[in-house]
Each structure stands twice: as structure tokens, then as C-alpha cells.
Specification:
Radius of gyration: 17 Å
Shape: globular
Order of helices and strands: HEEEEEEEEEEEEEHE
Structural class: mainly beta
Strand order of the largest sheet: 1-4-13-6-7-8-9
Helix content: under 10%
Low-confidence stretches: 1-7
Mean pLDDT: 94
Distance between the termini: 27 Å
Strand content: over 45%
Number of strands: 14
């Protein structure tokens, strides 16, 4: 099982990913390679996406949850692909019930298609594949892995997407799951080009079931939870 072979201690031997030093963050500039989100969503329950909660410090990307604010960085509109591998090197924040760390996920909103790495509260890591089912966004494959509180763990996460054929998840260079249409509910499977996102958010909205992530407890105004992405790479395949 992957739980026994992935240490999560940050001592894995892999090539170093490019850091974020050359990245310029500009809100609303969707033709840029990366764009901080600045809006509200119902799932956030008032902990809206705030561009100020994203910074590049010493070449590392920092996404912060503070009281009443979450952080999301999306790739630009020219970065979609239906055949690529995306990788990040991440150190997770202190995890709390209701906190969702999504250091790497890919999405096509119009197509209702998505693939996720999500650290869910203190429950562990959830891998999910979403597809269009009767014109609705539906989870068609789910796997829980690395169960428990992952606070402060460092991982190299990799997501290889071959539209319509295969999704492969990697942790610290180890293949932990391969998903094909034969593995999904009804054979539904994403096939459109997708773009990567990097999120740290609070599942405080009324539409969120607390049985999934746990119940969020408000923090002191001075408290911050920080997820650090040390490096990132996209490789076309």
C-alpha cells in the first residue's frame, strides 16, 4: 500500500523543481501564466479568495488562510492541456478540521471535468476524478490515502493526465494510483484540456457537509496557516 512506502518526510531523492522566482502575480490578468483569485464562492462561507494571501518569498509560493480569507492561484488561460504531467513540491500547513489544502488540481469548468489532490482537514489525502455525467459535475472515482493528520508534511506530488485515457497520481516519485475509464462510475472520464490550480481554503459554507472535512472553528485575527509550494513543473507528454 502507498501508505507504507511514502514517508512524507521531505528526504526523497528527486530532481529539484523550478522555483517561482520568475513568476509575476497580477490579479485579473488571465493571459499571464499565473493569476491569483479574488472573488467569493458559496463553499467558502465568507472566507473568500484574496490575492493578498498569495506571495512569493525567496522563490517559494506561499498560500495563506487567515481569518476570513482563503488563497487560490490559477494558471493562465493559455496553459490548458489534455496531455501533460504537473508536479509540485509542497510543505503542508498545520491542518485543522474544515481546512482544505489542494496543492495541485486540474480543472475545465465548461466541461465539468476535474482531477484533485486534496488534503481534507485532519482526515488525510483524497484523490478524486470528476467528469460530466448528464451535464453535471460528478465524482466518478475517489481514493483516500495517507490517512490522518498530515500537518507540516512535505511531498512531491505529480499528476499525469492523458485525456480520455488515463490519470496517474504520483507521491514522492512513486505511482500511487492509475485511473482509466474502466475504473470509473459508468465509464465517465475527463477528456478535455485542463489547467492547474493551487488552493488553500476553508470549507465553511452552508453547502459543505462537515462530515467531509470537519467543522471549521474561527481563528484569532493574528493567526495564519501557510502552505508552501517550493517548486512547480509542467511537462507535455
Amino acid at each position: 500500500m502507498a501508505e507504507s512506502v511514502v514517508a512524507g518526510s521531505g528526504d526523497f531523492t528527486l530532481d529539484k523543481l523550478p522555483d517561482w522566482s520568475a513568476v509575476k502575480l497580477q490579479v485579473w490578468k488571465y493571459n499571464n501564466p499565473f493569476v491569483p483569485s479574488q472573488w467569493s464562492e458559496a463553499k467558502l462561507g465568507g472566507y473568500d479568495w484574496k490575492a493578498d494571501n498569495i506571495k512569493i518569498v525567496d522563490g517559494a509560493l506561499q498560500l495563506t488562510v487567515s481569518e476570513k480569507a482563503s488563497a487560490e492561484l490559477m494558471s493562465g488561460s493559455n496553459s490548458t492541456s489534455a496531455s501533460a504531467k504537473w508536479e509540485v513540491d509542497v510543505t503542508l500547513p498545520t491542518m485543522k478540521p474544515g481546512l482544505i489544502a489542494a496543492p495541485l488540481w486540474i480543472f475545465n469548468k465548461k466541461a465539468n471535468e476535474e482531477v484533485d489532490f486534496e488534503i481534507v482537514g485532519t482526515r488525510g489525502l483524497q484523490l478524486t476524478v470528476w467528469a460530466d455525467v448528464d451535464n453535471q459535475h460528478k465524482a466518478v472515482w475517489v481514493k483516500w490515502i495517507l490517512l490522518g493528520d498530515l500537518s507540516g508534511k512535505q511531498y512531491r506530488l505529480g499528476l499525469q493526465y492523458e485525456g480520455g485515457k488515463r490519470v496517474t497520481f504520483f507521491i514522492d516519485g512513486i505511482e500511487v494510483a492509475v485511473v482509466t475509464p474502466a475504473d470509473t462510475a459508468g465509464g465517465a472520464f475527463p477528456n478535455k484540456p485542463m489547467q492547474p490550480y493551487f488552493d488553500l481554503w476553508v470549507a465553511a459554507g452552508a453547502i459543505m457537509d462537515p462530515r467531509w472535512a470537519g467543522k471549521w472553528e474561527p481563528m484569532a485575527a493574528s493567526d495564519k496557516l501557510v502552505m508552501t509550494l517550493h517548486g512547480y513543473r509542467r511537462t507535455d507528454i
